[in-house]
Amino acid sequence: MIINMAEEKHGHTYYQWIYASIASIGFMLYGMEAGWLSPITKTLQSENSPLGSPLSSSTISVCASVSAISSAVTVPLYSYLVDKYGRKWIIFAITIPQALSILMRIMFPNVVVLLIARSAAGISASGVFTTCTIYTREISQSNMIGKLGSLQVVMQFTGFLIIYLIGAFFEYFTILWIFLAFPIATAVLMISAPEAPAYLVKRGKIDEAYKTVAFLRGVTKDDKIVVNEIDEMQKQEEEFKSISKIGMRTILRDKSWRRGLIIMLATFTVHAWNGAFAILTYASAILSSTGNVFDISPELQTISFPIVMIIASLSLTGIAERFGRRVLLAAGFFFSALALTALGVAMLVQQHGYMVPGWLPITSMMVASAMYAGSVRPLPYIISTEMFNFQVRAKVMGSIVMYAWLVVATQLFAYGPLADTLGLHGTFICYGFINVLGVILCYVMPETKDKTDEEIRHVLAHSTKSQTVSQPT
Prior knowledge:
Protein name: Major facilitator superfamily (MFS) profile domain-containing protein
CATH superfamily of the largest domain: MFS general substrate transporter like domains
Radius of gyration: 22 Å
Mean pLDDT: 83
Number of strands: 0
CATH topology of the largest domain: Growth Hormone, Chain: A
InterPro entries: MFS_dom, MFS_sugar_transport-like, MFS_trans_sf, MFS_Trehalose_Transporter
GO molecular function, one term: transmembrane transporter activity
Keywords: Cell membrane, Membrane, Sugar transport, Transmembrane, Transmembrane helix, Transport
Main location: membrane
């Protein structure tokens, strides 16, 4: 697949690709941090642990989950800061706690500092999901939102792949020194990035907004494309000037915003309980439980999943603007449901003494992972940024991201008891049914691709069901 960044009929998209890619490095940092424990857990639990003594499995679990908790707690702070100081400089700022987190692990190798460092990394991750998503949406022209938004998941799983690779070949401190280079590079690159035009309009910097949109679109300031975009932003700004303060109470009183928020919270619940997390975390154990033996080392098994996910997310980048968001998300939930149910049924059949094809479990896991990367993971975030206008986007996204982190934490803690109670087969069949709920949610969700804020608000306020399914263009 070749991504065309060449000059189009009118203007070009070079700078949108460049700065969306730079902002999306934040997701690479998150992927590296999320995957960091995987290659070094064995080292931390060994007699020669760099922390002075081996860590117990329970301590490792706490290290894995503490970042999700700190992420959820700090989301409201980013929702305030991103509107107060701008999208660009908050992306710059989120590299600081990540860099400090890595430095703490290098300079003070002990358990207490490790927990504090992971909490600091969670603070950075909170900013990534709140701010980088908004920034990418607001520098993108309407027919590029899906493509540039899908870069985030490509970067995230690239981060997993990078940390797994360096973790397989380098020792504990070398891994951290290499890791440290990434937040520093992100901070340096963000200095040259433009501020999001929507924020500039919100702050009354209209002339700068004209220049920024013209620069990003590859046209002149007086071009009709630029004038129309800024006029639409100013129109929304004037519309909300009469409201002294837009808080969550105001948002919940508005029928369209309230309905949109409820739909997205429900979608993120299914997103978190999709089942892909269990596959990523327990791939080797799940494969072992099927009774199929693969002559592949654990390191290679681990690396195979982010590779599949990167391919899937790159595929989304190529087709994101050809199909409606709802179509792609519904397809992701549907095929995830089939794959996870097939995996659970295969385990159940084998448990009763029957044989299952050796390819079925691994294929099911790969399909579920690919659907997560190419649909279930990125599309709810893209849809959320398109569903709400820039006046409330930061606050709504803050609420959604905070909720997403909390529900991910519940899934993280619940997987073990759920597997013990229902068995692995029951757990994956349960995940399959949860994905079916996701397909149903897509039916009531408005299509946001190529729709203006006013059109989406009208659908949310007046329709009892969503628009007709978009066809490929």
